[in-house]
Amino acid sequence: MLKIAVLGCGRIGCMHAENIAAHPRAALAGVFDVHRPAADDIGRKLGVTVFDSAEAVFSSRDVDAVLIATSTPTHADFIEKAVTAGKPILCEKPIDLSLPRVQRCAVAIGTTKVPIMLGFVRRFDPGHRAARDAVQAGDIGDLHQVVITSRDPGMPPVAYTEASGGIFRDMTIHDFDMARFMLGEEVTEVSAVGSRLVDPALMRRLNDYDTVTAVLKTASGKQCIINNSRQAVYGYDQRVEALGTKGMVVSENRRPNMTTLHRADFTGKSAPLLNFFIDRYAEAFMAEIGAFVDAIDSGQPPEVGFEDGRQALILAEAAIKSAAEGRTVKTSEIG
Amino acid sequence: MLKIAVLGCGRIGCMHAENIAAHPRAALAGVFDVHRPAADDIGRKLGVTVFDSAEAVFSSRDVDAVLIATSTPTHADFIEKAVTAGKPILCEKPIDLSLPRVQRCAVAIGTTKVPIMLGFVRRFDPGHRAARDAVQAGDIGDLHQVVITSRDPGMPPVAYTEASGGIFRDMTIHDFDMARFMLGEEVTEVSAVGSRLVDPALMRRLNDYDTVTAVLKTASGKQCIINNSRQAVYGYDQRVEALGTKGMVVSENRRPNMTTLHRADFTGKSAPLLNFFIDRYAEAFMAEIGAFVDAIDSGQPPEVGFEDGRQALILAEAAIKSAAEGRTVKTSEIG
Amino acid sequence: MLKIAVLGCGRIGCMHAENIAAHPRAALAGVFDVHRPAADDIGRKLGVTVFDSAEAVFSSRDVDAVLIATSTPTHADFIEKAVTAGKPILCEKPIDLSLPRVQRCAVAIGTTKVPIMLGFVRRFDPGHRAARDAVQAGDIGDLHQVVITSRDPGMPPVAYTEASGGIFRDMTIHDFDMARFMLGEEVTEVSAVGSRLVDPALMRRLNDYDTVTAVLKTASGKQCIINNSRQAVYGYDQRVEALGTKGMVVSENRRPNMTTLHRADFTGKSAPLLNFFIDRYAEAFMAEIGAFVDAIDSGQPPEVGFEDGRQALILAEAAIKSAAEGRTVKTSEIG
Amino acid sequence: MLKIAVLGCGRIGCMHAENIAAHPRAALAGVFDVHRPAADDIGRKLGVTVFDSAEAVFSSRDVDAVLIATSTPTHADFIEKAVTAGKPILCEKPIDLSLPRVQRCAVAIGTTKVPIMLGFVRRFDPGHRAARDAVQAGDIGDLHQVVITSRDPGMPPVAYTEASGGIFRDMTIHDFDMARFMLGEEVTEVSAVGSRLVDPALMRRLNDYDTVTAVLKTASGKQCIINNSRQAVYGYDQRVEALGTKGMVVSENRRPNMTTLHRADFTGKSAPLLNFFIDRYAEAFMAEIGAFVDAIDSGQPPEVGFEDGRQALILAEAAIKSAAEGRTVKTSEIG
C-alpha cells in the first residue's frame, strides 16, 4: 500500500483523496490545505490526518508520496520541495502558466530520480487509450492525421477564466498532451486560429478566445487538428480520431447508459452525454492513481512526466503566438 | 453505516463483500462460509471478522443485516432464521428451486416486518432502469409489448447445469422478473418453447433446453417475449425493449469503451461486449447494496422482495409446463 | 427486354408499372384494371397500351409476362389463366386468403413449367438479404434463433382491415415468408399469442388481433420469433436478427438520411424511419422486377414461387388455430 | 420536359446522360464528345442524337439546355458559347483551374440572364442538406464551427493528379463550397497546412500535397475546419458537422445497407462505406438535375451558380498561398 498525502482540498483534491482511499493498492496518508476548514472536512469524512503545513507533509515519515492539487501558482514550488524531500509526485496540470517558471523548475529538479507524474488524466481514459493502443499496435498502419474534438459544456465562472492563462494554456493544454500521446513524435509547427463567439465582450477584455482551432504538424508531416469550444450545450464533447494507412480508429463520446428512445418525432439516446469532467473521466482518474502506484512499485518512470507538462505548455505558447500573428509558429521559436 | 454480514464466500459472495466494504453507507460486519478457508481468504483480504457459524452471524450484535449468497438449497432456511433473529435480509435469487418449499417459507415468515430483499440485480442496471422509468413516466404511452433478449456467452459447467433446476428456473428467472418489472402488472398466461441446439446430448439427459422462448401475457393483453440462448459467442447479450402507444424505449448492450475501428474489411466496435455478468452488471450490483441500505434507512419495504421471488418462480413453473405440454399455461394453474 | 403487362392499377400496381418502365431490362407492355379510369391514368402517364380485359392481356402477342396486382380474390383465377396462356407470372401476395382455394389452384396448375413468382418483396431488401447471405455463407455458424420485428406505423383503414383475412394472413404472412427465407428449413410447429390493444373494439368485432407474437419451430429445433404490432408511432419497424453458433447478424431499420442532431435535451437521428412500405422497400421492389426478369432469362425457377405462397398461408392458418386454442399447432395438422 | 444535351461523354458525362434520361421532368436531347466513339456508345445505348460538334449543340432548336461535362480547360469556353446561344447551363466543377481565366469568363458573360448552375453536387446530398437545413432553421442556434471530413478512398491515377491543379483546386474545392453552403456568410481568412504522406515522392515532384487541413474564418469569427486525405482505406469518408449555440448537427457516412455482424472478435457493420463518389452521391446527382430543371421552370437563379464556382476557387488559391507561406491569407489578397 502506497501512502499518498493530498495537498489541496478543493473539488479536484477531494476527488483524488476519495479515489486514493478507495484504491486497493493505495492509502490516504493525510490531507493539507492552506484553507484549514477545507482540509478538516475531507479529513474528517475519510478519517485521516490533517496536516498543519505543506512542510509537515514533506517531512512526514508516514507519507510515501504526494499528490499536488493546490492552486496552479504553487505547483512548481511544491514540486521542487517534494523532490528535495524525496517524495514521488503526482501533480495536477499545468506545472505553471509561465514557461520561464517551468524552465526554472526544470533546472531546480535537474536529473532527480524522484518520480514526477503529471495529471494529464485523459491519457487514462479507456476509450482514448484503446485508440492509442490501436495506433501503437499498427491496427491503422502508419499514422497520418489525428482529429481531437474537445468542447466544454459551458463557460467556466468569470473569475476562473480571468485566472486561467487563456484557453490555450487552460483548456487546449489537455488536447496538446493528447496530440503528443497519439502522434508518438514531437510537434514542430503550430497554426492556430481563435474566435470570440460565446462571450465576445469578456473575450475581448481578456484578450482571449472561446472558440479555437489548432493544427499541429510533426517533422515527418503528421497532422493533428484540435477544435475547442467553451460551449457545447449538448454536453462535454470528447472525441479522438486517428487516420492511418490501414484505417481509422475513433474514441467516441460516452453516456451514463445505453438506452434509446424512439418516438414519432424523435429517435435517439434518452440520456445526455456525461456532462462534467469528473464524471466523464471518473474511470480515468482512478486509473491515473493506479498508474502512479505502478510507476513507483516498478521503479519505472511515470508514463507522463514533467517533460510532457513542459512540452504541452510550449505548444500552448506557440498557439497563442500563431493566433496573434496569423502565421505558423515553429516550436523551436518557443522552447 | 449499516453493518452487513455476508453468508457464503463463493464468487458472488466475495463480490458482494467487496462492494459492501467499498460502499459509502455500508460496512462489512463479517463473513461466513461452511467451507472455512473460503471465508478466511476474503475475511483476511478485507480485514473483517470471520464467523464460525451462521448462527453466530444471526445472534451477533454487531450485525445489522445479512446478505445471503450461500448455495440455493440453504436460502429458505437462512431467510427463516434471519427473520426470527430480526435481521434484514438481502438474498441472492432464487429463494428455492422448489415452489412448495418457497410456499412453506412464505408461511413461516408470515407477515413479518423484517425487510427482505431479493437479488434480482438487473432491476438496478442504469440502462434497464432508465427504460422502466421511461415507461412509468409515460414516455412511450400505454405499454403493449416488451421484448427481452437475454443470452449467455456460453454454457456453464456441466455440474452447474445439472444442479441448476433447468434453464427456466436458473436463467430465464431473471427475465421473468425483468418482465414483471417492465410490465407493471401480473402475468396470467405463459407460452414457452424449448429447443436443444447448443448441447443436445446433455440437454436430453437432463430433460432441459439450451434455447428457449417464452411469451407472457397479462390480463389486459400486454405481451412480453423473452428469448434465451445459453451460447452467444459475441458476448453476454442483455437487451430490453418496450413498445407503447407513443413510442419505443430500448436498453442496449454495453461495452467497456466506445472506441470504433474502421478498416477496409471491417467497421465496428473495437471492444467486445462486457462478457461476464459481474462486469456487465457491476454498477447494478453496487446500486443494489445502496437500495438495500435505503430501504432499511427509510423504513420502506425493499422495491424487490420475497413475493417477487415467488412470482418469478411461478412463471418458471408455468413455462416448464407449457414447453412440456405444448400449450399455453395459466399462472392460476401453478400458484 | 421482357415485355410485362400489369393487371391491377391500384397503388401497388401503379408502382410496379413505373418500376417496370424504368427497369433497364424490362418494358411495360400495357396495363389493365376493371376500373377503366385507373388504368387510363397510369397508361397515359407512362404512354402505354390500356387493355380492355384481362383476357386481352393473356392473349396478346406483345405481352411476354404478367404482373398480377389486382384484388386478392382474383389472384388464383388470374394465375390459372396466365398459366394456361403460357405467360410467366409475378403475383402479389397472397395467392388467396383461403387455403382450400390455394390448394385447388395448385392442382389446376399442376406441374406447369410456366414460371410463377410470388411478390414476397422483403426477400429482396438489401439489408435482409445481406443477413440471409451471411447465414448461408456460414458467417454465424449453425443457425439457432431468428427474431423478426415487424410493426406497421398505424392501423390500416377499417375497410381494409375487414377484408384483410386477419393480421396473420395479411401482415404476419410477410414474416412467415421471411422466417422460411432465413431458417432454410420447414417449420413444423407454430405457437401464437394474440392481443387486442391498439383498437380493442374493432378487433373484438372482427375476431382479430392487432398485436401478435408467433414462435415457429423446425424439426431440428431452430426457432423463429415474430412480433407484430399494427401501431408503431415511431415508424415502420422492420428488423431481422439471426443467432448462430458463431455469432449474430442483424438487419437494422433504415432512414432517409444519416443526419443526427445533438441538443441539450436530445441526441439522435434527425430523420424518422422510412415510414411507408413503398418507400422502405423501394430498392426491394425494383430488385424484385430484376429477379423476375433474371428467372425468365435464365430458365431457372423464380427463387420465391407458388409453393412459398402456399407454405406461408399454412403458417398463417396454424397461427390462427394456435392463438384461438391456446396450444402449439403442428403444420401437419393444416397442410 | 426540359430537353438537355450533354457535352462530354466520359464517366461523369455518361452518368449525367443516364440520369437525365431517367428523370421524370427532363429529356436527353443528345450527346457530344470530341472523341466521337465515346458519344456514339452512350448515344446508341440511350437511343439519342449524337451531335457532330459543340456548335451543333448550341445552335440546335431541339436543345433547351446544356450540361457541360467536358475536360476542365474547355468549361469556360463552353459557358461563354452557351450564354451567347441563350442555353441554360449546368457545368461540372471547376469553371477553370486558373482564376484569371474565371475572371475573364465572368466579364464575358457579364450580367447575362441565362441561368448558369455549377455542379457542386454535395449540396444536394440528403444528409448534408438536412444538416444545412437544420442550421438554417435555427435548430442549433447561432453557428460557431463547421467541421468537414472529406477523404478519398485512394489516390487517383498519376495522370489525373498531374493535371488536377493540385489537391486544393481539385479535391478541397468541393469542401470549400460545402463550407460556404454551411456557413452562410463569406470566408475572409484561410489558414492551410499540407503534408506529403500517402505518396511523398509524387507530391514532391508535383509540389502538391496528399493530406491537408484548411481552417476558414468569416468576418464574424465563424470557423470551418476541413480535413482531407487522398487515402482512407476504409472508404470514401464524407462527413459534415456543425456546432452552434443550441447544439450540433452531423451528417454521417452512408453504407449500402444497415446490416451488422456480431462475432466473438468483431461487432460492426457488415457492409463497407459506399466507396465511389458516383455511388455515394447517386441521390445527389439525380437531385441536382431536378434542381436545374426547377430553376429554369421557376425563372429563379440556380441555387449554386457561377459566382459560387469563382468563390470556391478563390478559397483554393488562398489555401495554396497559405500552405506555401506558412501564414493566414486574407481572401481579399486573392479575389
From TrEMBL, chains A, B, C, D:
<dbReference type="GO" id="GO:0006740">
    <property type="term" value="P:NADPH regeneration"/>
</dbReference>
<feature type="domain" description="GFO/IDH/MocA-like oxidoreductase">
    <location>
        <begin position="128"/>
        <end position="249"/>
    </location>
</feature>
<dbReference type="InterPro" id="IPR036291">
    <property type="entry name" value="NAD(P)-bd_dom_sf"/>
</dbReference>
<dbReference type="Pfam" id="PF01408">
    <property type="entry name" value="GFO_IDH_MocA"/>
</dbReference>
<dbReference type="GO" id="GO:0000166">
    <property type="term" value="F:nucleotide binding"/>
</dbReference>
<dbReference type="GO" id="GO:0005737">
    <property type="term" value="C:cytoplasm"/>
</dbReference>
<dbReference type="InterPro" id="IPR055170">
    <property type="entry name" value="GFO_IDH_MocA-like_dom"/>
</dbReference>
<comment type="similarity">
    <text>Belongs to the Gfo/Idh/MocA family.</text>
</comment>
<dbReference type="Pfam" id="PF22725">
    <property type="entry name" value="GFO_IDH_MocA_C3"/>
</dbReference>
<keyword id="KW-0560">Oxidoreductase</keyword>
<feature type="domain" description="Gfo/Idh/MocA-like oxidoreductase N-terminal">
    <location>
        <begin position="2"/>
        <end position="119"/>
    </location>
</feature>
<protein>
    <submittedName>
        <fullName>Myo-inositol 2-dehydrogenase / D-chiro-inositol 1-dehydrogenase</fullName>
    </submittedName>
</protein>
<dbReference type="InterPro" id="IPR000683">
    <property type="entry name" value="Gfo/Idh/MocA-like_OxRdtase_N"/>
</dbReference>
<dbReference type="GO" id="GO:0016491">
    <property type="term" value="F:oxidoreductase activity"/>
</dbReference>
<dbReference type="InterPro" id="IPR030827">
    <property type="entry name" value="Myo_inos_IolG"/>
</dbReference>
